[in-house]
TrEMBL record, chain A:
InterPro entries: AAA+_ATPase, ABC_transporter-like_ATP-bd, ABC_transporter-like_CS, ACT-like_dom_sf, MetN_ABC, MetN_ABC_transporter-like, NIL_domain, P-loop_NTPase. It comes from Kushneria phyllosphaerae. SUPFAM superfamilies: ACT-like, P-loop containing nucleoside triphosphate hydrolases. The gene is metN. Part of the ABC transporter FtsEX involved in cellular division. Important for assembly or stability of the septal ring. It holds the Pfam family ABC_tran. The keyword ATP-binding applies. This is Cell division ATP-binding protein FtsE. Residues 2-241 form the ABC transporter domain. The keyword Nucleotide-binding applies.
TrEMBL record, chain B:
One of its GO terms (biological process) is D-methionine transmembrane transport. PROSITE patterns: ABC_TM1. It comes from the Bacteria. This is D-methionine transport system permease protein MetI. It is a multi-pass membrane protein. Residues 13-207 form the ABC transmembrane type-1 domain. Gene3D superfamilies: MetI-like. InterPro entries: AA_ABC_Transporter_Permease (IPR051322), MetI-like (IPR000515), MetI-like_sf (IPR035906).
Length: 347, 217
């Protein structure tokens, strides 16, 4: 549905030239939700603006719905844009128009008859749950309501694709969830293809099917979300994931570890489970075969696109000689282990 | 004050209204066009034409830097060509309108600059033409600023119209000068000044009222 081929965007010229995007290749399948994630300044905004040519790529080609946008003239491009909705971090609603007026704007631009516009506005108010606020002005709306209006407006001309530019970054966590649920709902009900950019892993995890990691203007990793969260392929991916999954030893634990010696203490291990949670069978197995009892100190379990990702910090009690074999066994079960330090036995 | 003088002052009030309203309408209409042109032709704007932009900007600056009293005299030949005479109330409309245009243009440009860039980007993403962006986004969103600009312009024109009395334009300025100053009638001076203060105050209040009504917040 959306395809970027070797898209490069350079700002300025000569010695002052800054490359915001480097040879970006990205394919967004029809009906899917793809999230481009990256830190501020990585080129996310430039990337999404290159899709509807709000920014013209310096090199490369952009296709949406089978049409190449990069070779179009202004009139053709405007027509193509009617088929691509866009929502923004700061909503960009017209303060001088009511909710109805804002939603109807894209249809006015293409000369839709008034009756049809009104009918379409009613449908969209229903879809986005804004019936009550139809005649309110944006200034009287909450952030979440404003973004709903923006979504309704973006959908007015029945686009095939929706671009979301940090659409939830200005919203609180609860409102974010509600907006993401709405986007997911629209995606499933209307089969709308969504490309979003965000700096929040939570957004990607909640609604995306595919994730593309952007760093320094280049896409370093593109993967299904389930794969990316359980097994990032690149170092950049791992850094991003670790930041999101923050399971760092607590200060108390760090203190205890620094007070203990390697020779007499019990190993403290960080375990990462992918695709399955720690089962009681595994705990029993470790105890029976290796004489090791796990004492769980910290743990966290995430469900990402139906796949489980578990993180745990545990003390391995007993079986000093069998520790290596136990670790090997865990590795065969695809459990990642990392010895963080040692602590004195609690008595 | 004699009843003849009262009639004279009433006539002057009507003349002042005529001068200010007519030149205000012409000046504001053309000034908005010029202000929009200044805005949209800037670099990176929706109809970027940097060379044209600099030309318009220069014209506006020249127009604004000539004192009105000089402008009025300098335009006399043009005025005569246009309306057949450079003396009289109607003749005074020409310099008044022309003085208002660059004044309004800068104010309009400033009002448009206040419209958040995101709105223009949103309109572009919907496939709006530059003309649609101007008429459906820029001007409606800048309405408050445009009303403020009109208010300031009308008030300035009330002042300018008094100067136009010097070329026989009639109006309160002429009465104040001819009867209040030259014939030393402090009562006439006081009354005319008071009327002008009331007019300015009234325009300002009206402007504030409309600005307030245009703000949906």
């Amino acid at each position: 549905m959306i395809r970027l081929e070797n898209v490069t965007r350079v700002y300025g010229q000569g010695a002052k030239a800054v490359t915001a995007l480097k040879d970006v290749n990205l394919e967004v399948a029809a009906g899917s939700i793809t999230g481009v994630i990256g830190v501020s300044g990585a080129g996310k905004s430039t990337l999404i603006r290159c899709v509807n040519l709000l920014e013209r790529p310096t090199r490369g080609r952009v296709f949406v719905a089978g049409q190449e946008l990069t070779t179009m003239n202004k009139t053709e491009l405007r027509k193509a844009r009617h088929g691509i909705g866009m929502i923004f971090q700061h909503f960009n609603l017209l303060e001088s128009r009511t909710v109805r007026g804002n939603i109807g704007l894209p249809l006015e631009l293409i000369g839709t008859p008034r009756r049809e516009i009104d009918q379409r506005i009613d449908e969209l108010l229903e879809l986005t749950g804004l019936n009550e606020r139809a005649s309110a002005y944006p200034a009287a709306l909450s952030g979440g309501q404003k973004q709903r209006v923006a979504i309704a407006r973006a959908l007015a001309s029945n686009p095939q694709a929706l671009l979301c530019d940090e659409a939830t970054s200005a919203l609180d966590p609860q409102t974010t969830s509600a907006i993401l649920a709405l986007l997911r709902d629209i995606n499933q009900r209307l089969g709308l293809t969504i490309l979003l950019i965000t700096h929040e892993m939570e957004v990607v995890r909640t609604i995306c099917d595919q994730v593309a990691l952007i760093s320094g203007g280049a896409l370093v990793e593109t993967a299904p979300v389930g794969d990316f969260f359980t097994r990032p392929a690149t170092e950049e991916g791992r850094v991003f994931l670790n930041d999101f999954l923050q399971l760092a030893p607590s200060n108390t634990l760090l203190q205890r570890m620094s007070d203990s010696s390697k020779d007499t203490g019990l190993p403290v291990v960080r375990l990462v489970f992918r695709g399955q949670a720690l089962s009681s069978e595994l705990m029993t197995h470790l105890e029976q075969h290796f004489g090791i009892r796990l004492r769980i100190l910290q743990a966290r379990v995430e469900n990402i696109q139906g796949r489980t990702l578990g993180l745990m910090i545990a003390e391995f009690d007993g079986g000093r000689d069998t520790l290596g074999a136990a670790m090997d066994h865990l590795h065969t079960l695809d459990v990642q282990t990392e010895v963080l330090g040692h602590v004195q036995r609690h008595d | 004050m004699s009843s003849a003088m009262i009639d004279r002052i009433l006539d002057a009030v009507i003349d002042t209204f005529y001068l200010v309203i007519c030149s205000g309408l012409i000046g504001i209409a053309l000034g908005i066009i010029m202000g929009v042109a200044l805005y949209v032709t800037r670099e990176n704007r929706i109809m970027a034409m940097p060379v044209l932009n600099r030309v318009i900007s220069l014209i506006v600056n020249v127009g604004r830097s000539v004192p009105f009293i000089i402008l009025m005299l300098a335009l006399a030949p043009f005025t005569r060509w246009l309306v057949g005479s450079y003396i009289g109330t109607t003749a005074a409309l020409v310099p008044l309108s022309i003085a208002a245009i660059p004044f309004v243009a800068r104010l309009v440009e400033g009002a448009l600059n206040e419209v958040p860039h995101g709105l223009i980007e949103a309109a572009e993403s919907m496939g709006a033409t530059p003309w649609q962006i101007i008429t459906r986004v820029l001007l409606p969103e800048a309405r408050g600023g445009l009303i403020t600009a009109a208010t300031i312009t009308i008030i300035a024109l009330i002042g300018y119209s008094a100067m136009a009395g010097a070329i026989g334009a009639g109006g309160l300025g002429a009465v104040a000068y001819n009867y209040g100053y030259s014939r030393y009638n402090p009562m006439v001076m006081l009354v005319t000044v008071l009327i002008m203060v009331i007019m300015v105050q009234g325009v300002q209040m009206l402007g504030d009222f409309f600005v307030h009504r245009s703000r949906h917040r």
